[in-house]
Request: fold
Amino acid sequence: MKTYPILIALSLILLGGCGASRMTLEEQQAVAQKTNQNLDSRKFRINVDYMMPRRGGAKSVFGSYHVTIDDTVIDSYLPYFGVAYRVPYGVAKVLNFKDDIEEYADSGWNRGKRVIALSTDNDEDFLVYTITVYDNGTAEIQVRCRNREDIGYRGSIALEE
Reply:
């Protein structure tokens, strides 16, 4: 019977520590506003820290993996794990390339997220990137390929100037 006060004290300590890392309302609004400005200008970078291949399980990734959109150009530097169905012999670009964007569609903000779909043909494969950006700055990227298995990534939008 004496364990109840100990459990209550322990749960209060744990609950108190959970709120310490949360952003204030002003910080959340600043992040949402900066994210919106970056997406509206079509000049943004998503830093990737997690990949989700179709096979083999999700993995954390370290390094400078990213997708950068600069108006009509995509700069993709992403790791890839998966099955290739038809690729050129020798050194392949996979998801490491810089090329023109063929189509770009932006859904606008809806329930705290914004979905951007774009396509490109990097001379090796036709790729469709579906980028979901949340108002807290986190992002998800789904890459559909014609000649490879699809793959997903998670990360955050770079907010610095």
